[in-house]
User: What shape does this take?
Amino acid sequence: MRRFAILSLSALLVGLLAACGSDGASTSSEGLPSVSGEYGTKPKITVDKGSDPGKKLQSEILSKGSGPKVAVGDLLVADYLGEVYKSGKVFDNSYDRGAPSSFTLKNGQGGVISGWVKSLKGVPVGSRVLLVAPPKEGYGTQGNPQAGIKGTDSLVFVVDVIAAYNGSSPLPSSTPVTDLPDTLPVVTGDAEPTVTIAKGTTPPTEPTTTVLATGLGADVVKGELGIVQFRAVGWSGEALRSTWPTGPEGVAIGGEQPSPFDLLIGIPVGSRVLLELPAQDGGDPAKESVAVVVDVLAQHGTAKESAK
Assistant: This one.
């Protein structure tokens, strides 16, 4: 049996902190490196020897997408590569991982560096963006020792914007499932659900998946990034966590670390699902079984896949 840490749901979002050129061509302007490669392909960044990154944030849309414009506070799905300006050391990239990442475009806790917020807000989905962030728009004077970034390092990023979601992003069309067992926790509400676990309801002994409404999208597959809203409630009725107040989150499906969301594999996008997790899968300090209602908004592969 795979063990899940339901109280680590809030930590499942593991992210970076993450004038127009011609599509796919090497592009540069004053103070910016050149970039080769098309949207969706791993970029190659070339910094002119002896060039100065400057003290101000610089950015450029290398290829412009046709999707909606990204807004501050959106959940962004993106592929990206980041390297240190002077040394050319790549400290992170999603292209080699073969799966996109997601992050909330905001400053502060749970957000990203200010250089991303300022450079990516207003950018159309489907765009490739180049940005050079000085320390004050990156990790500040403290740097990021874990990533090998010093407090004096300017950073270069290439970001492929795949999708954007916010709190008003609706659940795709679905068909309610009828004749559900009477022994299930009761889920009501069209948007943020209410979960009621009647006294005496038998807790699960195995992780259980019940589709409450069947979506019309493709089946969720292993290795994709799922976009979900969820509400978790302890078997005693205690509210553990809900994403509805803050908006959708991105979760790895079938990744290296076991996750409750792995139970969504094979379920159509657009579905509302009830997950029942036994107490031993709650993880310390959880001491009881948990019911999780999940709305599956979307799934995404890499930017290269989305460009097909």
The chain is about 5% helix and 30% strand.
